[in-house]
Specification:
- The protein is an alpha/beta fold.
- The protein is built from 15 helices and 14 strands.
- Helix 4 (99-111) crosses helix 11, helix 12 packs parallel to helix 15 (417-433) and helix 14 (384-394) crosses helix 15.
- The protein is globular, with a radius of gyration of 23 Å.
- The structure holds pyridoxal-5'-phosphate.
Length: 477
């Protein structure tokens, strides 16, 4: 007979960092290095978090891009508690629905730039990508074109970690060792509209279902679209009858200075994939926003059920939290704040481009910044990235290296200018500590969009009318 000890919650030590070993299998981790060296984050307030050893950090990455409104928002906890005490969740399958879910769907439909938008809820971004891959293929099947099944994606792209998203990934290391995932996916150069057109023509437009595109590439290294890129690829898809899917899991709900990147760049996408900022991560939730023209064959085929959905699709408590989170974003004018901080983050990060170790700074599109380390330095010394992150932690800044060797800067929207400056200073000093020297360089490689001004501040004109075009007016705060 087993004599395993029964544990109660209080038997477990809390807040213990650097335990000899852990049973928690960390996502995206080298467990041989992590085991016994965990950083346990215990609490958060605004743009700051505190670890179990008492250290306080500026949250330079909004956790994983998701915390827009800041940590410790009582209002969101109260929204969750109120909903849980009424009805935590129920099944939304078939004809059943929970009330906050209906209200959130109406709200997102109204916020979406798509005509007659319908909303399919998921538990997060990877679910949204999986749903979208199935939805676009099924759309063509319903339209009597079942051969249209190819999906085209870009290198550097990150589309989550479900099987479909892994297959779509443009970051090769994320695919390694998983066998063949989906044979009908083609990956193209991230910045080449010509390659998109050529690939569609080579495969045959009548065999391609959709082009998946992050308007601003996120986890692949924060790459804003090159000037004119989005206009061109959108036109190519339209001309050839290919669906356009905007993966806005990072850019949705304000991160690029408008409610959606799709509004800022006038994309009129067939599908918008969203998650993260929808709830600021207070509860997991995602949403696929679907243009009415794509929903049409699904909604108007009597007797045909789409057998797709998740247990937590439209989870009532997550929906209540999303509503409260959107209330905060609107009431406190947080997207306006992102617009105001765009030139600031640019101005603060750009001088770091003078470091010998730095390849490129990309900043000034929304509250996003990347400090990319020279690839040759990372190739010669794979410890450089982890050591840089360690130096940043010693200076009270918490973030990570992105897939291309860039330091991620994507703080909560409520961050103060002083804290932004502290992040930049910490990156500067940490690079210096690792032996990098700053030398004035005549040109900095900063991606500026055509609607950006290369004014002294290095930011871009907040006068662009597409910015904030989709942001509801706010009152106070
Ligand atoms: C563009 C993009 N798509 C999809 C995902 C997957 O989202 P999740 O991790 O919530 O499954 C992410 C996550 O970072 C993302 O950045």
């Amino acid at each position: 007979m087993s004599c395993r000890r029964r544990y109660a919650t209080h038997d477990y030590p809390v807040g213990v960092s650097n335990r000899a070993s852990t049973t928690f299998w960390h996502p995206f981790a080298d467990m041989s290095a992590v085991n016994g060296h965990e950083l346990v984050v215990m609490s958060g307030d605004g743009a700051r978090v505190r670890a179990s050893d008492g250290r306080e950090f500026i949250d330079a990455s909004a956790a994983l891009w998701f915390n827009s409104v800041g940590h410790g928002r009582k209002e969101l906890a109260e929204a969750a508690a109120a909903q849980m005490m009424t009805l935590a969740a129920y099944s939304n399958f078939g004809d059943q629905a929970t009330e906050p879910t209906l209200r959130l769907a109406d709200r997102l439909s109204a916020l979406s730039p798509q005509d007659d938008c319908k909303v399919f809820f998921t538990s997060g971004g990877s679910d949204a990508v999986d749903t979208a891959v199935k939805m676009v293929r099924r759309y063509w099947w319903l339209k009597g074109e079942p051969d249209r099944s190819w999906i085209i994606t870009r290198n550097r792209a990150y589309h989550g970690m479900h099987m479909a998203g892994t297959a779509l990934a443009g970051i090769p290391a994320n695919k390694d060792g998983h066998g063949e995932l989906d044979s009908r996916v083609r990956n193209i150069q991230w910045d080449s509209p010509a390659e998109l057109a050529a690939t569609i023509d080579e495969l045959g437009a009548d065999r391609v279902a959709a082009f998946f595109c992050e308007p601003v590439i996120g986890a692949g290294g924060i790459y804003p679209p090159p000037p004119g890129y989005l206009d061109e690829v959108r036109a190519i898809c339209r001309e050839r009858g290919i669906l356009f899917v905007a993966d806005e899991v990072i850019t949705g709900y304000g991160r690029v200075g408008s409610m959606f990147a799709s509004t800022r760049w006038s994309l009129d996408p067939d599908l918008i994939l969203s998650a993260k900022g929808l709830t600021s991560g207070y509860l997991p939730m995602g949403a696929v926003l679907v243009a009415g023209r794509i929903a049409e064959p699904f909604w108007n085929s009597p007797g045909v059920m789409w057998r797709h959905g998740y247990t937590y699709s439209g989870h009532a408590t997550a929906a209540a939290v999303a509503m409260a989170n959107l209330d905060i974003i609107e009431r406190e004018g947080l997207i306006e704040r992102v617009v105001a901080l765009q030139p600031v983050i640019s101005r603060l990060l750009n001088p770091i481009g003078q470091h010998g170790a730095v390849h490129e700074i990309r900043a000034g599109v929304g509250l996003l910044g990347a400090v990319q380390i020279k690839p040759e330095i990372l190739a010669a010394d794979p410890t450089f990235g982890p050591r840089l992150i360690g130096q940043l932690r010693e200076r009270g800044v918490l973030t990570r290296m992105l897939a291309d060797g860039s330091v991620q800067v994507s703080p909560p929207f409520i961050i103060s200018e002083d804290d932004l400056a502290s992040i930049a200073k910490a990156i500067d000093e940490s690079l210096g500590e690792l032996g990098s020297v700053r030398q004035p360089r005549p040109t900095l490689h900063v991606n500026l969009l055509p609607d950006q001004t290369s004014d002294e501040a290095g930011g871009f004109g907040s006068s662009d009318e597409r910015l904030l075009a989709d942001v509801p007016p706010h009152h106070g705060g």
